[in-house]
Amino acid sequence: MIRFEDVTVTYDGASAPVLSNVDLHIPEGELVLVVGRTGTGKSTLLRCVNGLVPHFTGGTLRGRVTVAGRDTRTHPPRELADVVGVVPQDPLSGFVTDIVEDELAYGMESIGLAPDVMRRRVEETLDLLGLNDLRNRALRSLSGGQRQRVAIGAVLTMHPRVLVLDEPTSALDPGAAEEVLAALQRLVHDLGVTVLLAEHRLERVVQYADRVVVVPGAGEPLVVGTPAEVMATAPVAPPVVELGRLAGWSPLPLSVRDARRAAGPLRERLEPLVAEAALRSRQSLHVVSGDPAVSARDVVVRHGAIAALRGVTVAADRGEIVAVMGRNGAGKSTLLSTFVGLHTPTSGSATVGGSVASTLRGRDLVSRVGLVPQEPTDVLVADRVADECTSADRDAGAAPGTARALLDRLAPGVHDDTHPRDLSEGQRLALALAVVLAAQPPVLLLDEPTRGLDYPAKQRLVATLRELAAAGHCVILATHDVELAAEVATRVVVLAEGEVVADGPATEVVVGSPMFAPQVSKVLSPQPWLTVAEVAAALVVAS
Fold first, then answer.
1. Which of 137, 341, 375, 451 is deepest in the core (most CB within 10 A)?
2. Region at 301 (left for phi over 0; alpha for psi -120 to 50; beta for the rest)
3. How far apart are CA 517 and CA 514, in angstroms?
């Protein structure tokens, strides 16, 4: 179905090719997972499949890429649209209409399908992806995860033979991600669709893949194999694989189910260590007592007729890292936006550092609170990375080079002359975070901060957040990444339909939640372990 024959891609001005001498064959009806570090060329590999490389991205493509027998060099994207469906990282950038139902129908209108066929496919897709309640909603009013599902649906209505997805679950809550992956499984197994997807959150996807393609970058050859083959030697792996390596299990598990079957002896070893580990966890918190750094009291926020927040009361101290979790559309982004004055409560109050959030402006706002939004480009305005960093230092009153040093720590290797829109999703996020952190705000708000980040980048982010908390900063994360919450959060707040339904220590809130529990917790339940690092530390102390 898809063939790469000695393919090399070099972008204009680049000193080396992003892909070099790629030979790859993907047969019909396979689900292939593409993984690799941020910026190594995963998106380039995907864009070769529908002809975006080189027809729209520029650069030079040597070798040959064919899809269903069509050479992408001689067939531009419009001539491959009936065969290849593409869901980009940023769904909003690909929308053409304003309403969900219209967007689902647009592609079919473009190729002249009959109205009755269009209607049937729209209804099928609404049901398949759980979008029926959103059919008449404006696309711009949707949460990031809801937009992602609409983008996938708009492609599925075309019934493509090849489906290419770039980070398809990055903005989805765990339940919605499972729905999307289940739908992809049905397409592969029941309809023979070939699915090629890039994803950093291996814990969600690897067990469903037929094969894994590792893109190492720097022109190095691809590594291709079954999930078991690749995970056995991969330098980064999902938590169940890392837990299997720690425990010496063979074969290594790829799913929670496989890991639980092997975990009995490990649970027995850990049972007497639970109480001591819980004590160490509490002692590691850096909460500073006193007035809350940020608080919401009985806050109601409406988006037109929709109540996004319904009487929310929550507070966070300096030194806390609070994860705000919940389904797509639960009100997480609205809550964070309210703390920087982007929404004025209909009733109730939101304060930052004792001041009403909606009254803060300019330097007074920046010096108190920083928000890294779900779309990093919302805070990036310059044409060069270097100019963005210089401007951030100047606006924050920070020493020259502050933002650049933060960026180098979070995403090494980003060049000064690169336009922010030419960065990968993870690199743009790192740049936005560096821009906001240059001001060292006492309160830091992050909306989906690991979207597009590979595991090493996520670990650098975790280390940075822990240092900020240790220095007395208050950090609030709105996230669907349960592994991030397990790794770094001291508290978890769960929202549902704009209301707080849980608020407590991470171990108490997520361990008992089928949706928000991390993989280690699911494997070792009912013991309250959250991460492989916790388990490893406990075993070292006990030995």
1. 451
2. beta
3. 6
Q: What does the alpha-carbon distance between residue 405 and residue 387 come to, in Å, rounded to a whole number?
A: 14
The label of the residue with tokens 């850096």 reads 286
- Per residue in 130-159, pLDDT tens? 889 999 999 988 876 788 889 889 998 988
Q: Which residues of the chain have pLDDT under 50?
A: 286
* Element (DSSP H or E) covering residue 515: none
Pair 539, 481 in one domain: no
User: Do the domain assignments include residue 164?
Assistant: yes
Within 10 angstroms of residue 377's Cβ, the number of other Cβ atoms is: 16
Tokens standing for residue 224: 């291709």
How many domains is the chain built from? 3
Q: For residue 286, give both structure tokens.
A: 């850096």
Domain that holds residue 158: 2-236
Domain harbouring 210, CATH code: 3.40.50.300
Please indicate, yes or no, if residue 209 is contained in any of the structural domains: yes
Residues 66 and 24 sit within 8 Å (Cβ to Cβ): no
Residue that is written with structure tokens 């821009």 in the block: 435
Q: How far apart are CA 90 and CA 336, in angstroms?
A: 21
Contact between residue 167 and residue 502 where contact means Cβ atoms under 8 Å apart = no
Per-residue pLDDT, 9: 92
pLDDT at 164: 94
pTM for this prediction:
0.85
Q: 200: which 2 tokens?
A: 């950093």
